[in-house]
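Data card: per-record layout.
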Amino acid sequence: MSRRSDAWALVLLLLSALGSAGVAFAVQAALARTLHADQYGHFASALATLTIVAPAVGFGLPSVWLKLYGTEGWAAARWMRASARFVCISSIACVAATLAWSFFGVRDIETTRLIVWMLPALLSPGAIELASARFQLEERFGLVAAWQAFQHCARLGVVLVCYLLNARVDNVAIGFGCIGIIVIAGGVWTLSPLFKGRLRLAGHGERPAPGSATQAAALPGVGELWHGAYPFGVTSLLYFGYVQSGLLLVAYLTSPGRVALYSVALTILAAIYLFPTVLFQKLLMPRLHRWAAANDARLHQSYRTGNRCMLAAGLVAGLATALLAPVLIPAVFGEHYREAVPLVVIMSACAPLRFVTTSASSIMTSRNQIQILNGCMGAAFVCSIVAAMLLVPRFDLKGAAGAFVFGEAVWTVLIVIAANRIMQNRQRRRDAACAQAAGRRPGERVARTVESEAT
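The structure for this 455-residue chain is written out next.
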């Protein structure tokens, strides 16, 4: 893609993400106004349960596809048959695990009932991510944007109808479940050409002729795919577990009304985090895999520039959030959610931390590097949980907010240290290769050249 196409794709994805964030924000605000605080707390707890388990559907497969096609090109089509079976197996396992938890792990019957009604929403995020991965590989970012926005818009429609009809929380949950069924059906239809090898892959030239060595490569099995996918799947599970665990702890240690307040703060943070997520995970990720496989100088340039820009953008976003929270929250969610303002002010410190974390971790593309990422995230997860268990009983929701910020700080420090070491190792290998190509000894200093951007 040209620079102009890149700019247009980024604008399109950002507009879609901001629109989706606005709609998702409106969904939560409408729910807060439609439901009693206790009902909203039960609903938020049920939705958090589904959100934590949902990444196990496909278990990192979208990231694996981006990596495989980035490194193997057209030959990666050989993984699609195993991918289809892998999606089916993981979906069945996730549904079974969620049902078991809802009946034996949830404390109240109302949350259990809501989980059952919304069960199709467990699979819909996986369908969205898998379909989006196909369109990322094809660099059809308009369709990526459409997929990301559809579910939020449909959910807003359900909430507004329930608000006008003064419907119960069960009706909202049933509506979310029906939307999940529609998304799943659309995902199956969208992914069918990919599984059949009819992908319009971008960045790897023309499709090889039938019977070529690329087409005739050996077909891997589900076990081999699992071996490559599980580090990415663990990343997704750790991430959503890390984000939602605080809410579940608040649900266990306090009351549904307090859960509603904490959920408002998480909703605002989720909207703030969209910008770095769209930039690095949607637009740049296919290219980062290609550059990493080729040890391209553009990877180093992206890392340096990205970290600086994300730190500045995160500081601006965090400051704006802290300043606007006293006005925004009562106006949007209602005066009875004013208690959430101090939580948002405290948690706004997470914005620059998360922006830098997203940028720095984007260069971790290999299997070993993903495991390093998982170790950093796991350490932050544990620190956040321990801090919450210590602080929530004493400081209530402010303790939960402080624990969340502490976890973010641990994650950022560990990721930046690990990413710097990875980039130093890459640079040493690159300098050695340039020295050998120039006929010099590997120990001599080699002038760095940044390749002109071709895509």
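Known properties of this structure: The first helix runs from residue 3 to 34. The chain has 15 helices and no strands.

See the next section for split statistics.
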